[in-house]
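Propose amino acids for all 231 sites.
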């Protein structure tokens, strides 16, 4: 059976994620933006020939050129449009630069019983959340989007997006293969210049989490057992 994955965001994180998954899944890549000169130094999937072109379409072409199957859709991913934007996927990855989109992707995945990965990079670090139906969700941990600075405002070190994107892709492959080692955990990389190992943040489902309450496979069916932080 063909594995299908949606990647939301075709920029610094979406690039390495899509190229890493090129031979492992049929991809739908969703991004509303076009390639700009200021993107080229950390969005290595693009060259000057792509300037002004839609990122989703150009990244899909890069995947196809490497023997993969990908469709690029130039649109902003929203929960309302999710069904049209690869709604039959097995797994969805958020590689966007927008907190509201991250929560939208996570909530949609929880509500529809899909695997999901939420990736974020900022300045010198980032984090990757591995979402699986039936365990604590992204909203259990973060509750609501905060007004955080974006990469466009605060900047991100070029190699950081490659590293975080690689971890996100690896996590996606593990989840698709049935590996639940990090199910419902957040891997937090505080500063990749000095500490390459992540903090693995594990937490119990939040009893009043609105996403988990609505989920067809909800962790709230069983009582929360522990709140712990590792390793
Ligand atoms: Zn939850």
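Proposal:
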């Amino acid at each position: 059976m063909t594995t299908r994955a949606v990647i939301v965001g075709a920029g610094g994180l979406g690039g390495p994620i899509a190229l890493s998954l090129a031979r492992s899944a049929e991809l739908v890549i969703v991004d509303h933006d076009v390639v700009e000169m200021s993107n080229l130094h950390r969005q290595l999937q693009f060259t000057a020939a792509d300037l002004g072109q839609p990122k989703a379409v150009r990244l899909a072409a890069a995947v196809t050129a490497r023997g993969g199957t990908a469709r690029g859709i130039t649109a902003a991913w929203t929960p309302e449009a999710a069904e049209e934007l690869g709604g039959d996927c097995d797994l969805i990855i958020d590689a966007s630069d927008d907190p509201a989109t991250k929560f939208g992707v996570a909530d949609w995945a929880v509500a529809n019983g899909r695997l999901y990965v939420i990736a974020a990079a900022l300045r010198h670090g980032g984090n990757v959340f591995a979402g699986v139906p039936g365990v604590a969700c992204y909203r259990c941990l973060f509750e609501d989007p905060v007004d955080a600075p974006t990469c466009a405002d605060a900047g991100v070190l070029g190699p950081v997006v490659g590293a975080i994107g690689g971890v996100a892709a690896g996590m996606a492959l593990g989840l698709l293969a049935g590996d639940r080692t990090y199910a419902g955990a957040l891997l937090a990389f505080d500063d990749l210049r000095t500490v390459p190992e992540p903090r693995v943040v594990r937490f119990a489902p939040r009893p009043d989490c609105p996403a988990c309450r609505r989920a067809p496979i909800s962790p709230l069916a069983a009582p929360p057992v522990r709140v712990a932080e590792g390793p």
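The chain has a mean pLDDT of 92. DSSP finds seven helices and nine strands in the chain.
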